[in-house]
Amino acid sequence: MPETAPAAYNAGTTYALDNTCCTGTAGAALTVWKSLQSGNIGHAPASSPTWWAQVGEVYSEHDLVTSWALGAIVQVAATHQVYESLAAANLGNPVTDTTKWQPRGYTNRWKMFDTRNDTQTLNADAIIIDLTPAQIANGLYIAGMEADSVTVTVTDPVEGVVYSVTSSMILSNSGGSFFNWFLGASPKKLFTPRSICRCTSPRPSGYRSTSPAARLNVPYAILARWWM
């Protein structure tokens, strides 16, 4: 999940496999794309799904030499913060000037790890998170997630992968649900507050959570020991 904007897409540039670019307008959301093939030239990212994959959304980095419009959105990657311009021709004003800039929370990459439970990191493609617990942990808690599925993998530095589980997040037919009966089934469901894995390895050193999802919120990123 990127946090800073790569160079803008150029139709005359030949992109190699895994090269990135962005599309959008400075002061608004910028979409970041990753090339899926080598020799990628002349394929507009938004209309070429076999050539490009969307890997995230960022904003232009704030600077003191750009004249930002009223309502322009910028970010400061060093602090993971997003700001909105409160003035037209906003030039030479640091984001600490509260008469010129209003804080708008965290960047998309870090929203899932902020202290709020009403913000989510969004991506049309997979969201992959690598976590290294500071001590032995045999449980992982994820809340506020909307996704097709979630995969949790535990890797031991010596033994390799010692645990892996995939959980589908797709709603079934309405069945006995009054909500689905009256309002119709949603194609996705919120992840319920429960443990999605219970690991037995004595030395789990890394969790990888993979979510082919659009929305993910891990407000506390809880790695815990589950006492029985």
Tell me about this structure.
A hairpin with a 4-residue loop joins strand 5 and strand 6 (81-85). Among the domains are: 60-111, Seminal Fluid Protein  PDC-109 (Domain B), CATH 2.10.10; 121-224. Helix content is 4%, strand content 39%. It contains 2 helices and 15 strands. It has 228 residues and is mainly β.
The number of helical runs is 2
Helix content: under 10%
Largest sheet: 4 strands, mixed
C-alpha Rg (nearest Å): 21 Å
Number of distinct beta strands = 15
Spatial ordering of strands, largest sheet: 4-5-6-7
Report the sheet-strand fraction. Answer: 35-45%
Secondary-structure element order, N to C: EEEEEEEHEEEEEHEEE
Mean pLDDT: 80
State the low-pLDDT regions, or none: 189-205, 218-228
What gross morphology would you assign? globular
* CA(first)-CA(last) distance: 36 Å
SS-based class: mainly beta
Concise account of the structure shown:
This protein is mainly beta and about 230 residues long. It has two helices and 15 strands.
Task: Please give the structural blueprint.
Layout: E1 20-24, E2 30-35, E3 52-58, E4 60-61, E5 73-76, E6 81-85, E7 101-106, H1 108-111, E8 121-122, E9 127-131, E10 139-147, E11 149-156, E12 160-168, H2 178-183, E13 195-198, E14 206-211, E15 213-224
Parallel strand pairs: 4-5
Antiparallel strand pairs: 1-2, 2-3, 5-6, 6-7, 8-15, 9-14, 10-13, 10-15, 11-12, 11-14
